[in-house]
Description:
Blueprint: H1 16-26, E1 32-35, E2 38-41, H2 46-66, E3 68-71, E4 75-77, E5 82-84, E6 88-92, H3 93-98, E7 110-114, H4 120-133, E8 138-143, E9 148-156, E10 159-168, E11 172-175, E12 181-184
Parallel strand pairs: 7-8
Antiparallel strand pairs: 1-2, 3-6, 4-5, 6-7, 8-9, 9-10, 11-12
Amino acid sequence: MSTAPRVPPEYTVSDPERxxxxxxxxxxxxxxEIIEGVITPMSPSWxxxxxxxxxxxxxxxxxxxxxxxxxxxxxxLPGSENxxxxxxxxxxxxxxxxxxxxxxPDQTLLVVEVTSPSNAETDRTVKRRRYGQYGAPLYLxxxxxxxxxxxxxxxxQLGYGTEDGPHPFGGPVRLPAPFDLDLDTSGL
Length: 188
């Protein structure tokens, strides 16, 4: 007769989502995401970082006047096995300065993801759908593989209802209010 090993109560996981998100924050390191339950280390190339910086620099003057900041802080998607680190997110400065942990996508004004060969399909499909479902008002996909930018808006249960693009690199991409600016994509 065999018996199952006794698991001490302190090792019992009553909330797998919480345990997974704890692991990503405390064990996996600063640059890892959870995408549909899979822990995914991030190691962006210089070309990838350069593309994100081109967007960041164009946004910076407008953000200061609006009381907003940009960064790549953690975004939690509660009720799912997802924990994202966007390439760039724009959030209210007062909220960012008071938040030690993750923010929620609906607390952002803009989320930007820049594709890499290893994550392009995730950014195009999974993250686009999830950011929309979790209420991020604007999602800008900078697709380095197709050399296009697409702006998604009108978030809802199925993702985004409006798609502006794809716009080929070299032309402007209009970011609506509160940004009200044309993003120059020629350097991407």
